[in-house]
């Protein structure tokens, strides 16, 4: 038997602390992975976090589960306007914060000979569009990224699209039709993976279809997992889904191994989610996991500017050994501190004020 998931209309909904922790581990993985990308450019077989980029697919899958948990039982009652207001309040303040940080870092980067070479017209156009979470891939030094000031915003762009599709279509589907709806997403994911050779696209102008494929499958699969009450049938220790998640990220990368990567996304991400929803942790561990969950989104949305600057420094000076370890370690600590400050003094107060004003 599959254990019943808690009703979203219950007045005492449980808190999935381990899922929060898994979100935090995924954000930490992305942070480290992005630094390693600068050290091992285009060499994911040497990169010991060779599949760190699959954290995004886990984010999408978790998001589908959480959206279903939070809104399936009440979206008709609160209406579309309230749903979209809630989602904007939850997500968009840090879209703005990340863009501002990225803009400052972009125009003031001392390691680039001509940081303003794109021209102020292009820079300001990119800034306005990024603040609105609209793609603009025409700035120099950002590899054609859809959001050059804050590269991780690409996944928020597709997250917004998934939320719109949920509100207009997916919440109306019963379990059978939602199951059917996962099939095109899975097929599209496999097709894009086969075409590109792996599952990493979506962040730049050359791989936009991959982004649609990744969110189409993973978000819908997470929502379906919730609808089917697909929580693992018995409690498991928190370390089991966490270790499985780390295994996913540390799984060695092999060039053009699109079949394995597709299977990791199609099967392992939902399994980790199912186990995480059933996992139990001690009170102390629960507090730690809850903190990591709260820190995850600020960390994800504020870290990339230091990564770009580090990449420019690494290319210019090629530090190695303990010097490199020290630099990256200090940058990781710095990013964690910035994320905590952003969470406590910017994101939480702004969201609290917006809720009082608009909800």
Summarize the structure.
The protein is mainly alpha-helical.
Instruction: Write down the secondary-structure element order.
Output: HHHHHHHEHHEHHH
Q: What is the terminal-to-terminal distance?
A: 39 Å
Main sheet specs: 2 strands, parallel
Label the overall shape.
Answer: globular
Helix content: 55-70%
Beta content comes to under 5%
What order do the strands of the largest sheet run in, or round the barrel if closed?
1-2
Coarse structural class: mainly alpha
What does this structure look like?
It contains twelve helices and two strands. Strands 1-2 form a two-stranded parallel sheet. With about 350 residues, the chain is an all-alpha fold. α7 (about 210-225) packs parallel to α9 and α10 crosses α12 (about 320-359). The model is unreliable at about 1-10 (pLDDT under 50). The relative contact order is 0.18. The longest helix is centred in the last third of the chain and has 38 residues, at about 320-359. Helix content is about 70%, strand content about 0%. It has helices spanning about 15-40, 55-70, 75-105, 120-130, 155-170, 175-195, 210-225, 240-250, 260-280, 285-300, 305-315, 320-359, and strands spanning about 235, 280.
